[in-house]
Amino acid sequence: MIFLKTDDEIELLRQSNILVGKALAEIAKLIKPGITTAQLDKVAEEFIRDNGAIPTFKGFPNQYGEPFPASICTSVNEQVVHGIPSTKVVLKEGDIVSIDCGTYMNGFCGDSAYTFCVGEVSKEVFELLKVTKEALYIGIQQAVQGKRIGDIGNVIQTHCESNSYGVVREFVGHGIGKEMHEDPQVPNYGKRGYGTQLKSGLCIAIEPMITLGSRQIVMDKDGWTVSTKDHKYAAHFEHTVAVKAGKADILSSFEFIEEVLGNKAI
Q1: DSSP state string for 184-227
Q2: Residue 16 DSSP symbol
Q3: Selection from 114, 112, 109, 251 nearest residue 182 by Cα
């Protein structure tokens, strides 16, 4: 069932999503060679709770009913999504790490993701991140009243495949509101003019998951971590947006992250 949000509800969603952006900025301050993903998770959880919210990822069940053990997902290099923070995962020069973060505050959820460079990365990898982030904003341009879900996926797919990248099919964006995952699903591929029609007040998380090589993925034995089958790097960027007439309203924000990163931002 699809729930359209009132203007007041959208503002509550915006508060939760802005907090996600600020939490990601706190993490951005720490990302450098030598830090563990567990350290990033600790800072994120403390920041979210100190600001009166709950990290929605912690305890969230997977398809087997097993609870996610951390407050953020930290997916390094070939890991596409849902990487588990660990004291054993030490970031090193040339890595990339996708940080996916969710909050619950005032009855509504926030959800956003950003892929960070650790030190200097190769030109090839930087270009993957750049195109994936571009694809996110190109997709957001389609999130307007009267368009369809397929219009969003089609432009993301076209932009990424025209750059010879793979588009992950098995994991998709989603509706968002009082629950982190609501209807409809928002794939990063599709046909123009197909799928659910977008109506003003629909709030969705758009999140391209794009690979440097094949789009084929594998699930780790931990039941969470999804990686590329060919072990090539993958990028992931996500915004929560409200569908409006004429132009989508982006509820989450990368501005806080980019203030921290300065000229090193993607």
Answers
A1: EEE-S---TT-SSBP-TT-EEEE--EEESS---EEE-TTSS-EE
A2: H
A3: 109
Q: Are 110 and 103 in contact (CB under 8 A)?
A: yes
Residue 27 has pLDDT above 90, yes or no: yes
Rounded Cα distance between 211 and 164, Å, is: 9
Q: What is the pTM (predicted TM-score) of this model?
A: 0.97
What does the block give as tokens for 136? 């996110």
**Other residues' Cβ atoms within 10 Å of the Cβ of residue 124:** 10
Comparing C-alpha atoms, which of 155, 166, 161 is closest to residue 234? 166
Q: List domains and CATH numbers for the chain.
A: 7-264 (3.90.230.10)
Nearest to 60 by CA among 78, 82, 85, 93: 82
Count the residues in the chain. 266
**pLDDT single digits (tens) 127-178:** 999 999 999 999 999 999 999 999 999 999 999 999 999 999 999 999 999 9
